[in-house]
Amino acid sequence: MSSIGLGKGPQGELADLSAAGLLRTLKPLDSPTGPRVIRDGRELWNFASNDYLGLASDPELAEAFIEGVRKYGAGSAASRLVCGTLPPHRLLEDALAAAKGTEAALVFSSGFATAVGSLPALAGKDDVLVLDKLCHASLIDGARLSGATIRVFPHNDTAKLARLLETIRAKQPAARVIVVTESVFSMDGDLCPLAEIIELKDRHGALLFLDEAHAFGVLGPHGMGLAAQLGLQHRVDFQMGTFSKAAGLSGGYLATSTAWRDLLVNRARSFVYSTAPPPALAHATIASLERIRSTDGDHRRKQLRENISILSAKHPSPIVPVLFGTNDAALAASTRLEEHGFLVPAIRYPTVPRGTARLRISLSAAHSPETIAALASEIGHR
Ligand code: PMP
């Protein structure tokens, strides 16, 4: 029998992952998501989701989704440029641009699709993308797909970023240079030094692409993000975000100028060559945006801040990491917490750097303070 060139084959590769303690398997829930979920027949407090405001299981939001289906049907049936742009897509983009204070906004089917579509549309082989070392996989993949030169600066190290920008400018005075970073880092829950980064990118004639995925709905006036919190939103060239976390749904966006938006409409391949998100989802997202901006949203953010302070006095975001180092130690801690009724995921390489395996506690306004106190005493982390 002739052999096919499969290298080690999938079984061999899975065995390698397993031997390295890096094998992942799907662990489905047996219930809807929410602050309390069922897995393997057991009820657990859910500290694993990114549902920071508790909107994913909100009945009014579910109703808005149903209303969207009734009004606009099930699917959008075509890409946005062909005939998939339906009334709620336009309304959502207008509402988002107004909320963000930008000229325009463009919605994608996910945050991931936003990053891998927009970075290659904004930068090409003559350009330079300068990424924080801890940028999310979608930003890294988008940067790679762009074909631009990629430079990386150590996490939040503005001195190194300044030197990098000087070097780039000395060599390529005319290149388009885009600094890419996140406002809340997804696995550490820390913030980027946004004001300093903006100073630097302006000083060196660069642009800034800021992924507000974990800040949208959570930080700033009306939940409009870190840039808005610091009053700097007009100095961020590209504000990216997702509706899959605090907004409780799914989808991604880029808020920017009309000209950049028009360029993305022409060039972002995940936008051009992909069917438009279901119109009912866009309709529900408008409702979610309204909720996020409402006084109910303000109450939820206040509750969230109080919940965060129970676990960690001065922590700036709902993502609280507890570092263990080894994969086995982090996995064992996660298993032990699950036995005690808490769902807290262990995060390993390649999601985080080697040697920094951790528990990632994700807090929500939907958690009760008592539950968080119980978790805190379980992990001895006050
Ligand atoms: N950016 C960051 C920082 C993220 O954490 C995520 C989600 N893990 C994404 C982008 C991708 O967003 P989505 O889940 O909507 O695809």
Describe this structure as you would to a colleague:
The structure is a single chain. The chain is of the alpha/beta class and 382 residues long. The chain has two domains: 23-52 and 318-379, Aspartate Aminotransferase, domain 1, CATH 3.90.1150; 59-293, Aspartate Aminotransferase, domain 2. The chain is built from 15 helices and 13 strands. It has a seven-stranded mixed sheet with strand order 3-9-8-7-6-4-5, with helices on both faces. It has a three-stranded mixed sheet with strand order 1-2-11. A three-stranded antiparallel sheet has the order 10-13-12. Strand 1 and strand 2 (42-46) form a beta hairpin. Helix 2 packs antiparallel against helix 12 (279-293), helix 5 runs parallel beside helix 6 and helix 7 (158-171) runs parallel beside helix 8. The model has no long low-confidence stretch (mean pLDDT 96). The structure holds 4'-deoxy-4'-aminopyridoxal-5'-phosphate. Residues 110-112, 115, 136, 138, 182, 186, 211, 213, 242, 244, 250, 252 line the site of 4'-deoxy-4'-aminopyridoxal-5'-phosphate (PMP). Its EC number is 2.3.1.47. It is an enzyme of class 2 (transferase). InterPro entries: Aminotransferase_I/II_large (IPR004839), AON_synthase_class-II (IPR050087), PyrdxlP-dep_Trfase (IPR015424), PyrdxlP-dep_Trfase_major (IPR015421), PyrdxlP-dep_Trfase_small (IPR015422).
Category by helix and strand content: alpha/beta
Strand content range: 15-25%
Bound molecules: 4'-deoxy-4'-aminopyridoxal-5'-phosphate
Can you count the helices? 15
Main beta-sheet strand count, sense and barrel state: 7 strands, mixed
Overall tally of structural domains: 2
Question: SSE string, helix = H, strand = E?
Answer: HEEHHHEHEHEHEHEHEEHHHHEHEEEH
Distance from N terminus to C terminus (CA atoms, Å) equals 63 Å
Weakly predicted, low-confidence segments: none
Q: From the coordinates shown, what is the CATH architecture of the largest domain? A: 3-Layer(aba) Sandwich
Radius of gyration: 21 Å
What name is given to the CATH topology of the largest domain? Aspartate Aminotransferase, domain 2
